[in-house]
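S1.2 Input.
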Amino acid sequence: MKNNYRKLKFSILLQTVLVTALTVFVGGFLLNYVIDGVYNDSFAETFVELLVSLHMREEAAIELYWRLIGNNKTFFMIVGFLLLFALFFYVALTKMTAYLDQVENGIENIVSDSTEPIRLITELKPIEIRLNEIKATLKRQELDSIEGEKRKNDLVLFLAHDLKTPLTSIVAYLSMLEGHPDMPKEEREKYTRIAFEKSLRLGELINEFFDITRYNLQNIELNPVEINLSMMLEQLADELYGVLQGKNLSCEVNVEENLAVYGDPDKLARVFDNILRNAIAYCYEDTKIAIGAQMKKNDIEITFTNRGDKIPGDMLQTIFEKFYRVDNSRSSGTGGAGLGLAIAKEIVEIHGGQIRAKSDDNRTQFIVILPSKDEKKEEQTNEIHTHRRRAFGGRSGQRKRTQGKKRKGNMG
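S1.3 Output.
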């Protein structure tokens, strides 16, 4: 940055030199040709005549002239040069203050939200570049803010509609049950089951509202401990048994033994649960979801594979964005707020890992990469955890288990 203002420094230096030279030239000219020349005797005679006209003797007037002026010529010469320099420098400052006017115009360009780029003189090129960068950043932030607010408003609108839909159904079915106490048992059980399913859906939507609040109002904090990742993945698959049965799915877990990571068990469980629920929501019925985990160099790679419609390439770049589902592809039957994968991505990244997705004609795969326990331990040697607890503990052997319906065959 020091050399960026070289032209400005040179311009100010040149103006200062010119002011000094002009002062010396004009001052010297006045001294030699005016003060010491044409007007030298005339000034002395005029001074003496003025004093004589005020009834002072000529000898006393001449003596006073030499005492005040004649013998103090050097002092008056210095004062004269300083006055000339101040005059010329003040004129030069008009040029220098033009720089400030230029910067002020650039700031006004930003404040007024003008679409024209900021243009400054050559000497202020670095400031011009910086001001244009600031202007572009502010404009981008403004557009992001507007877009984010719009998407959040759309989200609230969608969720409000979705909240109303199951609530209306619950009230309708319960009203039928209340109004027909003699309803056949089989029909009563059917309506009760439907009302129960709708209430579960309503609970999920309410939880999504809480997710939105937490996601926007607080940072995600970790409480890392040593985790048996192999057992965690198997346990999560077991817990989703009921959800798998809803679409007649199976879940195969094929992980290496004793895979361990340092991380927050609750947060990582949420990551894997979000990915699995996303896979269940969009996979074909009567198919299998495969969970795999293996060590690759110093990292652990976890994969979640399901059969389903292909995700276009451009959408693969946006599925991890907040509120991604607030678009035309949103379906209240399968989708939620669009926060699941966005939160999963943030949790994985603050664990020092990565998450990505790939999809072909009938298969989608989510890949999570986390640092292994040994690698993470080196980074956290000096870190003190106040809530150390071992989650999903125990030893895990080489496992290949299937939850849900039993089904032969492999993922394509």
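S1.4 Remarks. The radius of gyration is 42 Å.
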